Amino acid sequence: MPDEIHRYDKSTLESAQDVLSGRSRKSFFLRLLPFLGPAFIASVAYMDPGNFAANLQGGAQFGYTLLWVVVASDLVGVVIQTLSAKLGIATGRNLAELCRDTFPRPVVVSLWVLMELVAMATDLAEFIGAAVGFNLLLGIPLWMAGLLTAAATIIILGLERFGFRPLEAVITAFVGVISVCYLIETVLDRPDWGNVLLHAVKPELAGPESILLAAGILGATVMPHAIFLHSALTQGRISVRDPAQLRRLYRYEHIDVLIAMGMAGLINAAMLIMAASTFHRAGMTSVGTLAEAHHTLEPLLGPAASLIFALSLLASGLSSASVGTMAGQIIMQGFLHRQISPWIRRLVTMVPSLIVLFAGWEPTRVLVISQVALSFGLPFAILPLAYFTSRASLMGELVNRRITTLATWAVTAMIITLNLYLLYATFLGGRL
What is the value of pTM for the model shown? Predict the structure, then answer.
């Protein structure tokens, strides 16, 4: 794995050790600060342009009906990302490395190929989303916006040379931009808060198309590459051996997950609420592309709304594209013990995206198709994670409790079932 992933400044590491040893007398927030970051990086995958497309279509077509799916998906994400973080803390290895050390060689190579394909599908959505953001903000052609996206993501990745903390700060700042944008959007569209609260907790579907979109929302939220990435971000970040300190470290990282995933859940909910409160309320249920949403928001809510939408899409695309490249590095290093320069990986993975943009294909349709591709890889990330975190010989003090294991398998079964339906509806029902 790239050394930069674990390179933190001395003061951060000293602060963390003081907290874990019980020597720190700082306030709770200051004690928590050294442990924040990994979950925010992983959570970017939960609010990438694929989420924009899925939540936009869900809100426009069905109003607030599918809001509970967003809430449930985020809760699933909390469980999965907590287990991923715990795996890295307890074992000092990431999920890809454990797969390589445990499974037969043919299985390892097959998993690596599958995860690389999933990473490319994810990168396609993220890169195109950022390009659409530049296109909407600057009014430049999509192919030119794609070249600008490539340059911007390379610059962001260049921050790794200064250690990982600056990159964490930039990615977290992007998350902050998305949060502020959707806070403003939610205020502008003035939703029906009674219906919002009702549908956030009331499971309800409205026919086969709503089931398909529910599966799409889940597929756009729980991303395979984020599972591999999070275990790598925590595996050697802060090394402790004492069981009490290990449990304390896990509690702080769990709080990191809760905060980051809570923000991601609120942002996803705000996306669907915005679409429901503007397009569905106005009877515009056919709004299905990012460009249509951008141009339609201005007459409905004013020019500020469309500008904020484009800005949030750009921040989402740039941050998630950078994180996707990091995840790709970790997947290759973990499965094969090989590593290529992030610049080479970035150049290789952006080629399909540039081809799509130069060919003039509809970006939102490509985003939706990429989410279908993710459904192939998701079970192959969650099943090994559930297996490893339930092994006492591997996890020691942090092995899953029985109820955690049962919950993980239940979540896995639910995800597999919904994704199988998504694939069936897509390829046999002709609904994509």
Answer: 0.84
For 104-113, the pLDDT digits (tens) are: 999 999 999 8
DSSP conformation letters of 304-356: HHHHHHHHHHHHHHHHHHHHHHHHHHHHHHHHHS----HHHHHHHHHHHHHHH
Write down the residue that tokens 């674990």 correspond to: 6
Measured CA to CA, the distance from residue 17 to residue 9 in angstroms comes to: 13
**Distance between CA atoms of 377 and 216, rounded to whole angstroms?**
14
Residue type, 226: A
Residue 35 lies in domain: 28-427
Q: What is the mean pLDDT of residues 2-16?
A: 61
For the record, the structure tokens of 14 come out as: 């000293």
| Cα 80–Cα 414–Cα 273 angle in degrees, nearest 5 | 75
Q: First CA to last CA across the chain, in angstroms? A: 37
For residue 315, tell me if it sits in a domain: yes
CATH number at 237 reads: 1.20.1740.10
**What would the pLDDT profile of 27-47 be if each residue is shown by its tens digit?**
778 888 878 878 888 888 788
Residue keyed to tokens 């529910």: 214
Q: Is 266 helix (H, G, I), strand (E, B) or coil?
A: helix
